[in-house]
TrEMBL record:
This is Alpha/beta fold hydrolase. It comes from Kocuria salsicia. PANTHER family: ACYL-COA SYNTHETASE, MEDIUM-CHAIN ACYL-COA LIGASE ACSF2, MITOCHONDRIAL. Residues 359-753 form the AMP-dependent synthetase/ligase domain. Signal peptide: none annotated. Keywords: Hydrolase, Ligase. Residues 70-311 form the AB hydrolase-1 domain. Belongs to the ATP-dependent AMP-binding enzyme family.
Amino acid sequence: MTSSPSSCPDDAARLPFTETPLPGVDPAWSRVVTVASTAPVEPVPGRKRRWHLLDNGQALSAAGRTPQGVVLAVHGNPTWSYLWRDVVRAATETERPWRVVAVDQLDMGFSERTGLFRRLEDRVTDLGDLTREIGLDTAGLPVVTLAHDWGGLISQGWAQEHPEIHAATVMTNTAVHHDDAEPIPSALRLALNKAVHGPVTTGSTAFLDTTLALCDPAPSKAVRKAYKAPYTTRERREGIAHFVADIPAPPEHPSHAAYERIAGRMSAREVPTLLLWGTGDPVFQQRYLEDLMHRAPHADVHRYEGAKHLVPEARDISTAILTWLDERFGGVDPVVESHRDRRARGRAAFVPFFAELEARRNDDTPAVVDMGPVTGTVDGSAPELNIERSVTWAQLSASVDRLAVALLRTGVRPGDRVNLMVPPGSMLTTLIYACLRIGAVIVVADQGLGRKGLTRALKGSSPQWFVGIRKALVGARALGWPGRRIAADSLDPVSKKLLGVEHTVAELMDSVTSVDPAEIPAVDPDAEAAVLFTSGSTGPAKGVVYTHRQMAGMRDTIRDTYGLRAGTGLVAGFAPFALLGPALGAASVTPDMDVTSPKTLTAQALAEATMAIRATAVFASPAAIENVLATADALSPAERDALARVDLMLSAGAPIPEQLLARLQELMPAAELHTPYGMTEALPLTDVSLDVIRAAREDAQRGVDGAGRGVCVGTPVEGAELGVLPLTADGSVSDEIVTTPGVTGEIVARAPHAKDHYDRLWITERESDLTPGWHRTGDVGHFDARERLWYEGRLAHVITMAQGPVSSVAAEHAAQTVPGVGRVAVVGVGPVGSQSAVAVIETVPRAEKPHLAPAELSERVRATVDFATGLPVSAVLVVPEQPTDIRHNSKIDRTALSGWAERALSTGKLSDL
């Protein structure tokens, strides 16, 4: 195990030349080497210089262990080899060890102060002198460079001069090039200012203090002292000043030529590359990551959301690095094998996602209908529908072709990412299918993520193009969202200039008078087609990448499972389903609602949308259904008749209690009510109807093996396979996939329509693919004797009690049956392995502020849960409203609730969430 970044063990190491404790460092790693310098700056070639290293080579040799290779770790400014202590320890203790040589560059750390201004070229030469002296050049072992900050450029310079031994590159928050058209980061501009440079670099520890502050969580006082130990005097900090002054951005800088040469050569050699990036770094920002990805497009990338500059200090990068090294140098990469397996399973004949548009290009019936504000009636007669726009299949097909050609002529290329920030409707539909038609990758990060989440998602996915309505363009301008701008609305010249808009969609459409089919390239079935984002309800929203084949697989699964054939009328009350209508050949309509807030869907808006295209199928989220039922009294007889003609109702996003479905059935008596289980990574995976849910409840009452203890989500859809990895006593999971009735574990799935990978989240992707060929969902559940899957919650929310791990969903649903109780979350508080269960409830009517539940209500909730599930609830807390994700308005943030409940119970203070 690596040491905690902020720990300070009792046996804190001391190097021979410092009295300052160095938490996490084994003194046996410390080594001083005398090296003959050939750097151009040296007035006397061959001058001996003393280097300090942290090197575990002798420890491995003494233990009789042979390293797989060498990690040459190069720090930046103003750190030193201490930055890599956790990597050294982990590489020493792992089953397949690596020798780590973490250097203190000359004039830095505990290496010699030469009194010379060492520039980039000198430092590259210095590193070569060192590796030659300690035998790395001739040891016959692969050398992997590991670098941070300035170390990135220096290590790349070394790598280019040692191609015969350089085997791989690992970089974290660094840069090898800066675009002259962009200003350098403000912190560096300030440090370069002549009035500030000396005082902040040598005259004080300000530059070092500022760097140490760029770490989240903050290092302990002992760790901060360790970083500052080599820099106690002005003379010892001179190297910090030189490093800053050697930033070679301007062309006239003495180091500019060497810097351009190193950056230019990086793309010439394709070696395995891992980029580990803190997204909150104000110095090495997203643009530097994008530059590295451009130079090494094959790189594996993981973005640590929220981490700042000192990523090696704030995150466990050691495990990621050693895992990556094992996979690249120790055998088959299980993630690659998993991709191969998944893709091989989806090799049915490929029919493009947009094929229905071509098949129906002469069809004059409605394809997409945009609804305006609800008008309504008071006399029960049929309302006059407010249809803002209706587009036929022929019009949609022609528009998609014209826009596809226009985008190509504008410069959009296959593989380019295009963020679409346009409300569901005919415009968005045209944009989606035009992009897919030319092989551009649609980035769907909806406003339901919130401003902060949306900014994180867009900057992380780095779209080259941004298409949005005026409001979105204003946001893009203010928040720095990436991409060349195209306006979905018509804009006057002044607005276009202010918002940085190059084109409008109308202008693009008008620019194409005829379409030559040969101008539109054929799509690669296995190329990226879309980046869809998770809801962000269990952490920062993740980008989920689908290929064209997988998108087609999603379409086929939904079509075959629910019989949605060409000619079906579909109401898309859940934004993600808006893009499926044309692919299915179904006429689609989005109700008058705020699509970023599903609970704004009213019964009347749903009825009017249904009437607009005589829809027989409806997609809506659980929160939308709740509000439809809450506003159903306002329906006119004609509107009730329209809903009564619906024969299929689908709801996805979160489990729905049977009682809620039963009320919905009364509103839609002819409809089959289905609540498919799935996720952004694979939707759907199972299907269940209200009839099956009722039968499952009856089976649970009769004691059928495995029935009960959760929400029945039915059986796998066509082409999908599911299993569980059983939970162990500490809440972790075992390795064997089972379908044994009653055995709870993490749900794993595979299907032709499952995602390809997570976008720029190498660690997350690997964790989801630890069972090769299967996607580990992070959900827990079990099967019953009738092969139905029962969902029990999230793996991260399992309560680890003394008697073993317990999932929460069954207890929550039981508590919701108590009169006066609304939504419920049962969370664990206390240390892992001895947690207690606490129920956090909403009440009807709504409470004004958080408080302990009254004794009578608390007892009823606890007794009901205990009777239904056997779970002892230690306390019941009341909140005005559960914290939920924005997109679904239904996924409760149980992690936040757990922390809040623990604080509330320990302090007796029930503050607002």
